[in-house]
Amino acid sequence: MKNNEYICGVGGWLTLLIIIFMVLSPLLGFGSLYGMIKDVESLYSGQLLDSKWASFKQETWIIYAISASVSFAAGYRLLKIHKSESVRFAIIANWLVGPIANVAYVISGALLLNLRVTDQIHASIGSIAGSCIVASLWTAYLLRSKRVKNTYHQH
């Protein structure tokens, strides 16, 4: 593709981002959360099945549901609503679904299970840092891509 060629519409990396938002992020998030809960419950069997654990599970599923909904909405907007507001929403969603959701899980665990926040952050630093890197890369793409600028009329 030549540098001066006009590219517009959903395609390339933009298609991948839409698939991530609408399909991969919600499915992988569900699988990860479900697996974590099942692993903890099988490891501790009946010991953790108290009201704190039940509250924690409920809270994490609520965080997941909000995150998955925001993710799907961001992908849908990028796919169907070709306005600059869709790009802004996608950038915000990128950070909400990744780093902010990860921090929310940490805070939820600390508060509901009476765990130390610093221990929780230490245990989750890899996923938080990784999600910050991914969110940064997609944000840079959404802000710099000619296809995105042309498709969503950002001039």
Automatic annotation (TrEMBL):
Protein name: DUF2569 family protein
Keyword rRNA-binding: no
Transmembrane segments: 12-37, 61-79, 91-115, 121-143
UniProt cross-references to InterPro entries, sorted A to Z: DUF2569
Annotated keywords: Membrane, Transmembrane, Transmembrane helix
Pfam families reported in the protein's UniProt record: DUF2569
